Amino acid sequence: MPKKVKGERPFNFGCLPLKYSYEEAKVVILPIPYELTTTYKPGTREAPLLIIQASRYLELYDQELEYEPYKVGIYTQEELEFSVKDPKKPINQIKEAVKKIIGKSKFPVIIGGEHTISLGVVLALKEKYPHLSVLQLDAHPDLYDTYQETKYSHATVMRRIKEVCPICQAGIRTLSLKEATYLKSQKESALFTAREMIKSEKTFQEITNSLSNEVYITIDLDVFDPSLMPAVGTPEPGGLFWYDLLSLLKIVFAQKNVVGFDLVELCPLPGMVAPDFLAAKLIYKLIGYKFAKSSPQPTVNSP
Prior knowledge:
The protein is an alpha/beta fold. 32% of the residues lie in helices and 15% in strands. It has one domain: Ureohydrolase domain (Arginase, Chain A), CATH 3.40.800. It has 9 helices and 8 strands. Strand 1, helix 1 (47-55) and strand 2 form a beta-alpha-beta unit.
């Protein structure tokens, strides 16, 4: 267990010391406890705080990478707050917040909140990276044009993002008739089902090949099988497991320039901390995949 030290910043991801200032950090974590359009099981607004709390108990040394990812500097911003009930206005607020982060050449890591938040992040990144593509890891395609009388919803987010840049959807295992009809109308559609991915790891390279060089990754935690990740709004059976997802992501990070990622749709379950810890572990693992090659040689001493 990591040793806690004087000067630790409890709200900082990993409970890292105050010495990691915004200017020094390469990674900026932005918690967005936004929840307005969720259906079935609510609770995503609680996720950012609980994930950050769970991250206090991470081992900061990554055994796979033989590296301590925290040494690139990880700074956690205060949570974004929203005072309006119009789902379009928070998207603009998120866009402006992310533009400030990437304007300082920081690597953005976004913790949601519901999946709608990804649109604001992509709008910001698209301005900096004109050839951006988005890898969506999800049980659902989220391709409704409108849902519950709005175009800005967790169920429409990838339709809106697809209007901005190319997308690749992976881990999908359920969709509506409207979404199926829409997909059939598209000349090109990069969609890979969970069944395809589990059946053959060759699919991982096909997914990677479908992406442009600059990639943003959005991870809805229901991409995991509910036996591993029950704390989601719609726990669809037949999902991916830990090493399935890591195998794909390791290839993507190795072959593409990943310019940021988000993790969304955790619906915390009272008395069950394993899903919160998994989410924190995944965030830390992906920071490691991004920076392990370019960072100084690791030591085994944690802060």
